[in-house]
Structure formats: structure tokens, C-alpha cells
Design goal:
Layout: E1 2-11, E2 14-24, E3 29-33, H1 40-48, E4 53-60, E5 63-64, H2 70-76, E6 78-81, H3 93-100, H4 108-119, H5 122-125, H6 136-148, E7 154-158, H7 166-181, E8 185-189, H8 193-199, E9 202-207, E10 210-216, H9 217-222, H10 224-231
Parallel strand pairs: 3-8, 3-9, 6-7, 7-8
Antiparallel strand pairs: 1-2, 1-4, 4-5, 9-10
Adenosine-5'-diphosphate (ADP) binds near residues 34, 38, 39, 41 and 42.
Pfam families: ABC_tran (PF00005)
Family: Belongs to the ABC transporter superfamily.
GO molecular function: ATP binding; ATP hydrolysis activity; branched-chain amino acid transmembrane transporter activity
């Protein structure tokens, strides 16, 4: 479904992705892991159209996304839940979700919002709360929900578990399981190596903007020592998790 070949991108004179090859099949969960600064966010931003490719190709369902601006990519079926969640803090949960559905017909809003609330029942209780009053876990649910309002075929999630309490990490991963059952593919950037490998079908390891390893997540689990050695000084998982703000 998503097919990236030889992708190079950068900022100004600095190149940060070098000849990346990556693909995602329908209803597949694919993990993109790597140390800080490896180029994970840049990869997702390039797929979503916020960062321009310098060379190489990004095909989605056989169509070249190269010339398409971000909003057209949403219409093609790609939605991003960005690093740091980036909610509208002065808007309610409901309003944040409605914004995510701007590309769909207005009649679809209620149905899609119900699907998000079924996936994350906690958000029903917070539906009229302002974005900035939510805990990190609730914010992540809204960010994923907002992306789902666009009815994507491929969901890009940047740093799913970073800074969340374990309970909320589990809720988000359960949601991914259900999305896969519904046929939605996920490209997941994750610092938590165990979670990423447990829940994904395949994994790519990126270091300094280059592909260092790729294969099935099962293979990565059985060669975890290899993956960790590629990631360098222990896995990124060893980094302390920020305490999550209480709701
Ligand atoms: N907007 C930007 N302008 C300039 N350099 C950037 C920008 N965003 C990221 N970079 C650089 O690109 C590299 C890859 O960053 P990023 O894609 O955010 O990595 P990751 O998500 O794996 O931590 C880093 O060296 C980072 O400093
Ligand atoms: Mg990042």
C-alpha cells in the first residue's frame, strides 16, 4: 500500500534521510525505531507531506504522492498523529476531533466520532474538556482519534507511548489491535522497544538517517541483542519516562 524507495530528505543543506526503502502493507502494523535524531519524525513528516522529499519516491496505492500537499494526502487516506500530540489546547476534545474530520463530508462526523469514543471510552467523559487540561494519555487518545476522524487507510503515529503512564500505553496499544482488525495499517514510531516489537508485524531500525535493519518483529524479538546493539548504548527504552500529569 505504502511504498517508499530511495527516499532522501533534509532541512536546508543538512540531509537527514539517506536512500530509505520502506513499505507498509494493508492492515499491517509496522514499527519504525531508532535513537533520537535518527530521522523517524522526518520520515513520517515526509510521508504526510510536511517535509519535501529531495529525491526518491513515495507511492501510496500505486499513486505518486510527491506532488501532493498534506491535505491531498489526507484525502488519499494518510493521517498523522504527530510527536507531542499537538492538540489545540483552547479547544475541547469534541472540537479537536471535529477538526480531524475536516476532509470528510459533514454527515460522517457523528459516525466517526462515535467510532473514536468506542475505541477510547475515556474520551466520552472528557468530551467537553479543553485540550490543555488533559493528561498525556488522554491527549494521545485525542491525537489518535483526531487522525482517525479522517478515515485513514494508513495511520502514522509518532511516539505513541512517550511520557504516558503504563495504563494509558496499554489502552493505546489495544486500540492499535482493533484498528488492525478493522483493516487500518499503522506506521508506528516508538521508543519502547518491547511494546513496538510485541505489537508490530514488521520493524525497521533507523540510525543516522539510514536503514540499519529491517525484518519481521518476530525475528527482531529473537535477535533483540542485535537490535539493541544497533540502537547503541542500550535501547532508547532505558531513557526515563517523563511523569504524566494527573488529569
Ligand atoms: N525542522 C528542522 N530543521 C532542521 N533540522 C531538523 C529539523 N527537524 C529535524 N531536524 C534534524 O533532523 C535530524 C532527524 O530528526 P528527527 O527526524 O526529528 O529524528 P527522530 O524523530 O528520529 O528523533 C536531526 O538531526 C534533527 O536535528
Ligand atoms: Mg521524533
Amino acid at each position: 500500500m505504502l511504498n517508499i524507495e530511495n527516499l532522501c530528505c533534509g532541512y536546508g543543506s543538512a540531509m537527514v534521510l539517506h536512500e530509505l526503502d520502506l513499505h507498509v502493507n494493508e492492515a499491517e502494523v509496522v514499527a519504525l525505531i531508532g535513537p533520537n535524531g535518527a530521522g523517524k519524525t522526518s520520515t513520517l513528516q515526509c510521508i504526510a507531506g510536511h517535509v519535501r522529499a529531495r529525491s526518491g519516491s513515495v507511492l501510496f496505492g500505486g499513486k505518486d504522492l510527491g506532488p501532493l500537499p498534506p491535505q491531498k494526502r489526507v484525502l488519499e487516506g494518510i493521517a498523522l498523529s504527530p510527536e507531542g500530540r499537538k492538540l489545540f489546547g483552547d479547544m475541547t476534545v469534541r472540537e479537536n476531533l471535529v477538526v480531524g474530520g475536516y476532509s470528510r463530508p459533514r454527515q460522517a462526523t457523528a459516525r466517526n466520532m462515535q467510532r473514536v469514543l468506542d475505541l477510547f471510552p475515556r474520551l466520552s467523559e472528557r468530551i467537553d474538556s479543553l485540550g490543555r487540561t488533559l493528561s498525556g494519555g488522554e491527549q494521545q487518545m485525542v491525537a489518535i482519534g483526531r487522525a482517525l476522524m479522517a478515515e485513514p487507510k494508513l495511520l502514522l503515529i509518532d511516539e505513541l507511548s512517550l511520557g504516558l503512564m503504563p495504563k494509558n500505553v496499554d489502552i493505546c496499544y489495544q486500540a492499535l489491535r482493533r484498528l488492525r482488525e478493522d483493516g487500518i495499517a499503522v506506521l508506528l514510531v516508538e521508543q519502547n522497544l518491547s511494546k513496538a516489537l510485541e505489537f508490530s508485524d514488521r520493524a525497521y531500525v533507523l540510525t543516522s538517517g539510514r536503514l540499519a535493519w529491517s525484518g519481521t518483529s518476530e525475528a527482531a524479538r529473537s535477535r533483540r541483542d542485535l537490535v539493541e546493539s544497533i540502537l547503541g548504548h542500550g535501547s532508547a527504552e532505558a531513557q526515563p519516562q517523563e511523569a504524566e500529569l494527573a488529569a
